[in-house]
Write the C-alpha cells for this entry.
Amino acid sequence: MWAFSTLFAALTLLPTATFGAQVVFNLDIVNTQLAPDGFTRDTVVPNGTFPGPTFKVQKGDSVVIHTHNKLTSPDMRRSTSIHWQASHGFFQARTSGMDGPSFVNQCPIAPNTTFDYVFDTANQTGSGSLFLNTDSTIITLAEWYHTVAPQVQNSFFKTGAISVQDSVLINGKGRYVNGTAVPYAVITVTQGLRYRFRVFSLSCRPYMTLSFDNHTFGANVIVSLDLMLHYGARWS
Ligand SMILES: *[C@@H]1O[C@H](CO)[C@@H](O)[C@H](O)[C@H]1NC(C)=O
Ligand SMILES: *[C@@H]1O[C@H](CO)[C@@H](O)[C@H](O)[C@H]1NC(C)=O
Ligand SMILES: *[C@@H]1O[C@H](CO)[C@@H](O)[C@H](O)[C@H]1NC(C)=O
Ligand SMILES: *[C@@H]1O[C@H](CO)[C@@H](O)[C@H](O)[C@H]1NC(C)=O
Ligand SMILES: *[C@@H]1O[C@H](CO)[C@@H](O)[C@H](O)[C@H]1NC(C)=O
C-alpha cells in the first residue's frame, strides 16, 4: 500500500444516536518531521501527527471530509489518498469511490488540491454498548519504517524482498533495537472499572498480536486474551 502513498485512518464510530446528521471535517495532509520511536524522519501525515486525529461521529451520521493535500517534500510522493480502513471493517456500500486506495478506487489527490470524501456511515459502529468513550480508550497499533516509502518501494522492486519495519508503535510510541528508550504509551485506568478499548491496526503489512501483561479479561470476554489483528482491522 505504501506504493500508492495511501494513508490509513481510523474512523471511530460511537453508537449513541439514532438520527443521522452530516458532520463536516477538514484535514490537511502535510510533511512533518516526527520521531515516534526516537528516530527522526520526514513523514506524510494527516494534520501533522501520527496517529492522525480521530473523527468522532454518531451512529447513522454521514461525513464530509475536506482533504487538503499540502505535501511539498520531493523525497516522498506528493500525491496521496486516504483509505478509511474500509475493506477491513468499515464498509463503503454504494460509495466505493470513497474507499481511498489510489488507482483502485480513485485518482490520487494532486498537491495543492482538495478532495472531498463524502460517505454515509450506514449505521456501522463498533459493537455492543459503550463503557467509556474517551480518546484514552483508543489503542492504535502500527508498524514504522525508518526509510521513506519511495526507498522502501525501490528496494522491493530491486530485490523482491519485502522490507521489515524498524519498530512497532502503540498509540504512536515505540522503540527500535538499540534506539533511545522512548517512553511507552500509557493508558491510565482505575482498578475495578470496566473499560472498552477500541483497537485499530494502522498497519500496511504485518499481523499484530496484542496482549495485556498480567491481566485477564473479565466476564465480558469478547475475544481471547491474545489477539491477532489483520492489517487495517479494528476490534473493540
Ligand atoms: C485538522 O486541522 C485543521 C487545521 O488546524 C482543523 O481545522 C481540523 O479540525 C483538524 N481536523 C480534525 C479531524 O481534527
Ligand atoms: C503548491 O503551492 C505552493 C504555494 O503556492 C507552491 O509554492 C507550490 O509550487 C505548489 N505546488 C505544486 C505542485 O503546484
Ligand atoms: C439505520 O437504522 C435505522 C433504524 O433502524 C434505519 O431506519 C435506517 O434505514 C438504517 N440506515 C441504513 C443506511 O442502513
Ligand atoms: C544492538 O547492540 C548490541 C550491543 O552493542 C549489538 O550486539 C547488536 O548487534 C545491536 N543490534 C542491532 C540490530 O543493531
Ligand atoms: C507479571 O507478573 C510476573 C509475576 O508476578 C512479574 O514477574 C512480571 O514483572 C509482571 N509483568 C509486568 C509487566 O508487570
In short: The first helix runs from residue 149 to 159. Confidence is low (pLDDT under 50) at residues 1-6, 13-17, 126-135, 219-233. Helices lie at 149-159. The CA atoms of residues 216 and 225 lie 7 Å apart.
